[in-house]
Amino acid sequence: MQTMWLSGAEWFAVLRIGLGLWWLESWRHKDKKTWFAGGGITWAAGIAAKHRWSAVRQGFDRCVKPRPRLMAYLVAYAELALGLGLILGALTPIALVAGAVLNLIYLVLMIHDWAEQGQNLMMALISVAALGAMSWQSWSLDAVWGLFL
């Protein structure tokens, strides 16, 4: 498909790169000292404790709460890896699926906060569209390496 300036595949690459920049900004704006000291997980624990769904409270208490330092590093560096992977187009389908899953986790945890929901829904939608359009076909290391053809 040809459009005014770029091909359809190139427009989806633009979308993929923009999503990668969004993930990179999510990582960049964290106060790393506070985050890695447990501030982010403590904040999320407060949200989970008041969550309307008991499965979310129980899941958080079982999986995240006992490992606050590990989870803080996992979340922060997952966002960094997603950002870099999508910008560079490296292992793009894996990054798109992982990003959509992370957005859905954030969405479920923050179900009562409409501002957060908008961002996470939009990012998940972009991930699904970029995955369906095989956005790694243009401007990506995956295309250079011949992966996911």
Quick take:
This protein has helices spanning 8-28, 32-36, 39-49, 54-64, 68-88, 92-109, 114-132, 141-145. The protein is mainly α. Helix 1 (8-28) runs antiparallel to helix 5, helix 1 runs antiparallel to helix 7 and helix 3 packs antiparallel against helix 4 (54-64).
Any overview of this molecule?
This protein has 149 residues and is mainly α. It has one domain. Helix content is 74%, strand content 0%. It has eight helices and no strands. It has helices at 8-28, 32-36, 39-49, 54-64, 68-88, 92-109, 114-132, 141-145. Helix 1 (8-28) packs antiparallel against helix 7, helix 5 (68-88) packs across helix 6 and helix 6 runs antiparallel to helix 7 (114-132). The longest helix has 21 residues, at 8-28. The radius of gyration is 17 Å and the shape is elongated. The two termini are 18 Å apart. The mean pLDDT is 93. It is found in: Membrane. It is a multi-pass membrane protein. This is DoxX family membrane protein. The chain crosses the membrane at residues 6-24, 94-114, 121-139. Keywords: Membrane, Transmembrane, Transmembrane helix.
